[in-house]
Design goal:
43% of the residues lie in helices and 15% in strands. The protein is built from 11 helices and 8 strands. It has helices spanning 5-29, 55-67, 107-120, 147-162, 175-183, 204-214, 219-233, 243-247, 267-276, 295-298, 300-311; strands at 71-76, 82-88, 96-100, 124-128, 168-173, 192-198, 254-259, 282-287. An 8-stranded mixed sheet has the order 1-2-4-3-5-6-7-8, sandwiched between helices. Helix 6 (204-214) crosses helix 7. The protein is globular.
């Protein structure tokens, strides 16, 4: 009589296994790690040997930012999170870049050089901690799905609270690039004149599968569990939108940067985003020898010249 329990036990074991794998995938990919505020003399930089030649410069940039007196600002996201940023004014009335950092990064760590780059071009800079990072609230990283709507909120904040006549450039690096690309087709203030997308990926599915494969694991088998975790535990579908899909409908000017030695987000992803981009004014800049997020440190002069020439018609 007890034989009828065997199928139920097997189903229960399978269900538990699915739940366990789903939770592990969600936790590893989409759940933010506990936040730790760095000490006054601590200057966190991205992990990996590729960044070793630039750590001294990054530390100098970070300490320089801390010595400035930025305006600390915050907004409330569409779903009730407090998001924080710092506004560095170079000159009143100058164009404003809103800069978004990468996956598991912070504004200070990933965008310290961006502020100095903005100043070199005569621009003001607003660097923001994305949801679930730095000083901002949240626990779930959505790879641009919800962050793009936060970008929309920040653009409106600049117009309403900093400069109603501001010419705004939306800038992002890595996941931040995905954020601004996906925001490009949302309802933005007319003040937004262009996009800077540095080493962005084509879609959440593409980059997550690539990282899973790099770990020596079966991406085709595990990604459905990751997607299930995002939908059930994170409240979003990572396949519902993507940077490359937004680029197919984009009309804003977009300049793409990518290093041809990028070991995290392959350079071909920016090439695909560029080819898909429907904007009449677009450009792709490939930086020889640059790894992930290092186009500007690797070739500061070339980066500045490319930006100056690209945005001159709209600024």
């Amino acid at each position: 009589m007890w034989y009828w329990l065997i199928p139920l036990i097997l189903l229960g074991v399978i269900a538990l296994a699915v739940l366990l794998v789903t939770w592990i995938c969600f936790r590893r990919i989409f759940l933010a790690k506990p936040k730790k505020r760095p000490a006054a003399d601590e200057c966190p930089t991205p992990p990996g040997h590729a960044y070793d030649p630039y750590r001294a410069q990054m530390r100098e940039w970070i300490l320089g930012l801390r010595a400035m007196n930025p305006q600390v600002v915050s907004v409330t996201s569409y779903d009730g999170l407090r998001l924080c940023g710092k506004y560095y004014e170079h000159k009143k009335g100058a164009p404003i870049e809103i800069l978004f950092h990468g996956y598991r990064g912070t504004a200070e760590r990933d965008l310290c050089g961006g502020v100095y780059r903005c100043f070199a071009l005569g621009r003001n800079a607003l660097i923001v901690d994305q949801r679930a990072a730095g000083e901002s609230e949240g626990r779930v990283i959505t790879f641009g799905a919800k962050e793009s709507r936060d970008c929309q909120t920040w653009a409106s904040f600049v117009v309403e609270h900093i400069d109603p006549d501001a010419r705004i450039i939306l800038t992002g690096i890595s996941m931040g690039a995905a954020t601004v690309m996906m925001a490009a087709t949302l309802e933005l203030p007319p003040n937004v004149v262009g996009i800077l997308a540095d080493c962005g990926y084509t879609s959440t599915e593409d980059i997550v599968k690539k990282v899973i494969t790099d770990m020596g694991l079966p991406a085709g088998l595990l990604y459905p569990f990751a997607r299930l975790g995002a939908r059930v535990l994170g409240g979003f579908d990572p396949n519902a939108s993507s940077p490359i899909a937004s680029m197919r409908r984009c009309r804003l000017p977009v300049i793409f940067f990518h290093g041809d030695a990028d070991g995290y987000v392959p350079c071909y992803m920016s090439e695909q985003n560029y080819n898909a981009c429907a904007a009449a004014h677009k450009r792709l800049v490939i930086t020889p020898g640059a790894d992930h997020g290092l186009c500007f440190p690797a070739d500061q002069e070339g980066y500045l010249k490319a930006l100056q020439a690209f945005f001159e018609p709209v600024l």
